[in-house]
Each structure stands twice: as C-alpha cells, then as structure tokens.
Amino acid sequence: MSQKTLIKFICILVTSLGTAQSQSIILDSVSGFYLTQKHEGFTGENYETLLLQEEPAISVREINAVSQSFDSFGKPVVLLEFNAIGTKKLEKITTENKGEPLVIYFGKKIVLAPFIMSPITEGKMIINGNFTIKETDGMVNWLKSRIEK
Q: Which residues pair with 104 in a beta bridge?
C-alpha cells in the first residue's frame, strides 16, 4: 500500500470497540460504511449524536479483501481492498462529502466515524485506532466471514 493511500484516510482514535452505539441505529441494520443525515455536535467519539442514512453507502459485500497489518508505530490496523463497485462508490462519497463523517458500522457496532479529509481513489482503506490485536483480529475474521464467496 502506498504512503499516499495511507495519508488519504485519516482515522480518529477510539479507545475500544465497546464504545457507545448510536441510538439512531436500528439493530438489524446492514453492516457497512454509512454517511450521516445529521451529525451536529459530533466530536469524533460521541456516536449518539449521529443520525445515519437508512442504507449503507458501501456494503461489506463490496470488500474484496481484508487483512491485518501494523502501522509505522507497531499498532494493529485492518486493511481493506474494495471491488470495482466499492472502489467507485468510495471515490464518489469521499469526493462529494469532504468534511463529513463516514461511519464504519460492523456487526451492530460503530467501529469508527472518521471525517472524510480527501478523496480515496485507489479502493484501499486502512482502519486504524487504538485497537488491540484481539480487536483487529475480530474485525478481520468477522469481515472475512461476510465477504467469502
């Protein structure tokens, strides 16, 4: 993965996957990447202030590959590579929604909600934060179980 790709995706540190879920999320919602209808007062960690769109902008089904790696500080990260449809969607939403949060919602939990800083055009994303190896392993295994064909 190029350094350029690494710089394009800025993430907000999260203390754990167990952070409070948004009350706006319906429990049987589809996992994926959501844009918000409303995010007034959102500081990066207070997920209860987010009102998500009804459908994900990108579904986990549009992920081609997922793996675990480590960033330059030795912290575990999750690497995602999207299929052609997911790549086009990711480029479109990150181009049109600069400054808006992109909510990463997996398995009935908000994993992160980073603000979109610039277009992501290469179809690759890094999910990083203050995660443990166990947490990133869990994300990778959970995602792999949903994208295997």
A: 33, 112
At 49-94, the pLDDT tens digits run 889 999 999 999 899 999 999 999 999 999 999 999 999 999 999 9
Which domains, ranges and CATH numbers included, belong to the chain?
3-147 (3.30.1360.200)
Model pLDDT, residue 128: 87
Q: Cα(66)–Cα(11) distance, rounded to whole angstroms? A: 17
Give the bridge partners for 105, in sequence order.
Answer: 32, 110
Closest of 113, 104, 114 to residue 33, by C-alpha: 104
| Vertex 103 angle, CA 97 and 106, to 5° | 145
pLDDT digits (tens, 9 = 90+) for 36-47: 998 888 887 788
Alpha carbon distance 115, 125 (integer Å)? 14
How much is the pTM?
Answer: 0.75
